[in-house]
Amino acid sequence: MEKHKLKDFIDATKEEAGNVAVEEVLPAVVKEAGGFIVSEGVGMLASEIVGAVVPVANNIRLSYKQNRLERNVVEALQIVQRNQDELENKIVKLQQSNLEYQRQITEALLDNIVEEPQEAMVKYNVNGYVNLLKSDNTNLDIVLMFFKTLSQLSDLDIRVLKSYSYLGNDGENILDICKDIHVDFEQLRFIREKLERFGLLQSKNEEINDNNLKEIVKYLQNLEKERKKSKPGSVKIPKLKKVSGSDSYKITPLGRQYLTLIEA
């Protein structure tokens, strides 16, 4: 498989970017990533990423925003390059049969990372992008929902979510997080509630309430059946579980799926 420097692909697509001098608009990107050796499909994808952020960078007037944008783009290109052997065939196939999916998923990524201040979240977004490109599932609605959800999460949110999973290699638990950021367990409640709203965590109290409700409905249905009989029998009253005064949570299948997507 023939490979070239990323800068060669960027130069080849310069006309599509309106002949803008990428070296002038994104000097750090060209300097740090231009020498990356990439295969054709990945090179074309990477040059499209660079070309897409050129207009954004061209309108930035604050140096810290420029530095952040370039840092995030370089991080994205590094991760894509590291995964190029697995990505190449998939990208070539998408470019031939589903270019619209590739375009929209790339735009969704860039919407999330261009102004993202947390480096960890940039990594999570790009990992998700790479893993979604590798996947055979090209359901655009699911992909856009993933990026939309990720855009509303922070690194701390992800750390809390990981603490409810066995996927974290660092083994960080919720008490470790409390100690690290100097808050008590109860103060993290708003994060757990936020993750619950996104369907990534489930309240165990809510689960108990749901199960209790099912038992009550089942009891009433059985009671109605017996009532219609000529000789109705007794219906056993269900034992309902008591809701805890302090709520606890568990990770949902969606939460586990998202953690899998954002891992390298």
UniProtKB/TrEMBL annotation:
Coiled-coil intervals in this record? Answer: 77-104
Q: Which UniProt keywords apply?
A: Coiled coil
* Protein name in the entry: DUF4393 domain-containing protein
Q: Which organism is it from?
A: Agathobacter rectalis
